[in-house]
Write a structure and sequence with these properties.
Structural class: mainly beta
Number of strands: 9
Bound molecules: fe (iii) ion
Oligomer: single chain
Helix content: 10-25%
Strand content: 25-35%
Number of helices: 2
Shape: globular
Largest sheet: 6 strands, antiparallel
Radius of gyration: 15 Å
């Protein structure tokens, strides 16, 4: 049966940990978002207005998820990207919770909930990955690593 509630699994991932361990390793807010699929309040996250060059990694497992090159200002209050840095690092799945039909974005390696993706992006990809700041860890690029942009 297809799962309709958002919410990460704790088994079957390259990185699988029991909830108690995630709870120890993450902040309460990160646990609530990554492991319980909650959403941080808009405009509260650390990376909403960030324009620094670098990569955004999963705050749960460190997997490289998004590049600053793909980040744009969506005005929604959450960091928004028009594509993942490496397509395979994110997994998309239907989320019919809260009486909406949305597509959930999870980290493939640890199953952590990242946010949702919508088809109304303003760039060529047409995608808007709407991601919780607290599910990400920003890693500034080394000089020259990302090229001119
Ligand atoms: Fe992860």
């Amino acid at each position: 049966m297809r799962k309709t509630q958002a919410g990460p699994e704790t088994t079957g991932r390259e990185i699988s940990k029991p909830d108690e361990q995630w709870r120890r390793e993450l902040t309460p807010q990160q646990f609530s978002v990554l492991r319980q699929a909650h959403t941080e309040r808009p405009f509260t996250g650390a990376y909403v207005h960030s324009h620094q060059d670098g990569f955004y990694r999963c705050a749960g497992c460190g997997s490289k998820l998004f590049s600053s090159d793909a980040k744009f200002d969506s005005g929604t209050g959450w960091p928004s990207f028009d594509e993942p840095a490496v397509a395979e690092t994110v997994e998309l799945r239907p989320d019919n919770s809260l009486f909406m039909r949305r597509t959930e974005v999870v980290c493939r390696r640890c199953g952590g909930h990242l946010g949702h993706v919508f088809n109304d992006g303003p760039t060529q990809t047409g995608q808007r990955y709407c991601i919780n700041s607290c599910s990400l860890d920003f890693e500034p690029a080394e000089p020259g690593e990302l090229g001119e942009s």
